[in-house]
Amino acid sequence: MKSLISTLALLCTPVMANHLELQINNVSNEQGKVYIELFKGAQNYKAGKSYIQNIISAKAGTIKANFSDIESGEYVVRFFHDVNSNAQLDTNFFGIPTEGVGFSNNATMQFGPPKYQDMAITIKNGNNLEITNISY
Amino acid sequence: MDRRQLLKGILAAPIAHAAISTPCLAAMQGSVSHFDQLKVNKQRFLAALEKYPDLVGVLGTDSDFSPNQLKIEGQLPKDLTGCFYRNGPARHQRAEQRYTHLFEGDGMIHQFQFAEGKVHHQGKFTQTSKFIAEEKAGKFLFSGPDSKLPHSLAINNPDSINTANTNVLPVNGELWALWEAGSATAIDGGTLQTKGLINLGEGTQHQSSLKGLPFSAHPKVEADGTIWNFGYALSGHIVLYQLNSLGKLQNVGMLNSGFTGGMVHDFLITEKHILLLLPSLKRDRTIEGQFSSIQFAPEQAMEVLIISKNTLKVVKQYSLDPGFVFHFGNAWEDKNGNISFDASLYPNGDVFNQMTSMMQGESDIPISPAKTVVFSLLRNGKVSSYTIDGISEFPRIYNALTGKRNRDLFTLSSIESDVWSDSVRRINLDNDSLDTFTYGKDYLVEEHVLVNAKENTKGDYLVGTALHTPTKRTCLNIFNAQNISAGPICRAWLPYAIPLGFHGNFLAS
Predict the structure, then answer these.
(1) Which one of A78, A110, A133 would you mutate to disrupt binding with B, by most B Cβ within 10 Å of its Cβ?
(2) What's the DSSP call for residue B42?
(3) Which domains does chain A show, CATH number per domain?
(4) Domain parsing of chain B, residue ranges
C-alpha cells in the first residue's frame, strides 16, 4: 500500500509542480487591486467555476502574478482592475464594465466578451509564461 | 444625364465597376485568404468617384476646415446672428481602407457663424479617443459597428468607438456632439475644441451606472430648457433621461422594452408623456455587422410605448401597422388625452440596405422613400392616421413648440429625385397645404433647421446647407420660414464641398 501511495505521489508531483507567471501590461494606474481568475477547461469557464484566484496590487504599467502547483491542461485567465477598491467589477446599467478588463491570449472585448477559444491557453509541464494586456 | 439618372448613378456607381468585382480585387491583392473588405471598398469607391464625381459628398475629408469667410448672394438679415452648427461623419477612409457603412465615419462639427453681415465657416473633427489614436497611427485601429478589422484593438464598451457623428446640441454654453450608442461629447462652441466625454451621472449616485450609457442623437428640448432623451441597448433595455437646462441629471429611468431589433433612432415627447416607437425590425445574427444584421420584419407591428414623464414607467401601449421610422417631427396631446404625432414613415426597411449598399457598392438597390404620416393615438386605444403627399425626411418644428401642438412641420423632400433630397418645404398641418422650394437637379440638400424664434414672428428663418454637385461647393441657404416657396433670401457659398452630414441646430446670439 505504501509503495502504491509513493508511486501515485511520484506520478502526481511533476503535474502539480507546474508554474504560471502571468504578466499583465497596460495597467493604467496604481490605485486598487487586480483580481485574477483561472478557469480550467470550457465547462468550468461557462459555469463560472474558477480553478484558482489571486488578487495583487495595481501598479501603472506591467504587473506580474504567479500561480504554482497547477495541473497541466487548457486554461482561460480573466482579470479586472478594481480601481475603486470595492472588490467588484463595476458595470453600468446595461452591464457593460466601467473598469479595465483583460483576458489570456491577448483576447479582447469586441462588442462583448471574447470567445472561449480566443482566450484559451495551454499550461504545460514546468514553467509557463503568459503575457497579455488589460484594456479600459 | 438628368437628375434621376444621375442620382441613381450615384448609388449604382460603385457597382457600375463590375470589372472591379470583389473577387477580382481580392485576387489583385494576391490571395483570397488576405481579403480585406475595407481595402476593396476603398478601391471600388475611388474608381466609382472617378466616373461619378458627385460621390464627393460621401468621400470624406482627412483634415479640418480652417475658418473661411463665405461669399454671400443676397442680403443677410440683420437680425440673424448666432451660429448654425452641423454634425456628420467626415472621415470614411484611412490608409488603404474605407468603412463599409455611412454611419461609421468620425464626426466633424461645422460652425457657420453669422455676425456683422458676414458668414464664416469652420469645421473640426471631434477629438474622440478613437480619432486621436487612429490619427496617430495613420490607420484604422478599431472595428466599426459594421466594418470588421481583423486585429481590432479592444472595444470594451461603445465609447471605445464613439465617433460623435450624428447631431450637435447647444447646452449651457457648450456643444454636445451626439452619437446614439454612447456618451455625449462636450465641445467648446467657439473654438470647436473637444472637451471630452460626458458622464451624466458624474457627482451623483449614478456615477458608475450611467458611465458610457447610450444617449441618443435626438434629445428633445422643451421651451423651459428641460432636456429629455433616451438610450437604447441591443438587449432591449432603454434608459430614459431628464436633464435640466444646464444639462444636469434630474431623473433617470430604465425599462426593458423586449425590442431586440437593433435600432431605435428617435423618440417623442408630449407635455405629459414620452413616446418610444419600436419599429418593425429584427436582427439576423447570422449576418455579420451590427447594421447589416438589422432586417425589416414585415409581419411585426410597430409598438408605441407611452411613458409617464413623472414616473418614467410605461402607462399605455399602441400597435401600428408594420413600418420603419428614423425621424419624428413632434407629438402633442389634447385635453382628452388623445396623442398626435408625425413620423417620416418608410413602408419597409429598404433604406437600411440603401445606405449600406451606397458605401459597399452593391447593385439593384430598391428605393422606398419616407412620407410624413400623422398618427392619432386615441385614448380609447384606437389608432388613426393619414399621409401627407410627397416624400419627407429630416422633419423639424419650431423648438419652442416641442411637445405642444404645432401647425407647421418643416421637412426635406424630393421632387425630381427618388434617392436624395432636392427640396425643402413647410407643411401646414391644419390644412395640409405645402409651401415648397425645389433646389433643382444639381443640389444634394441637407437638413434645414429653424432659427429659434417664435412662430410667425419677424426674424423667423429656416437655414440649411446643400451641396451643389456641378461645382462641388456647399452653400448655406436662408429662407423666410413662412415663405419657403419664395426661395432663399440669402445664400452663402463655401469654395469647396464639405462632407454630407446628418443633423444640427442654430444657437442665436
Answers:
(1) A110
(2) H
(3) 2-135 (2.60.40)
(4) 253-386
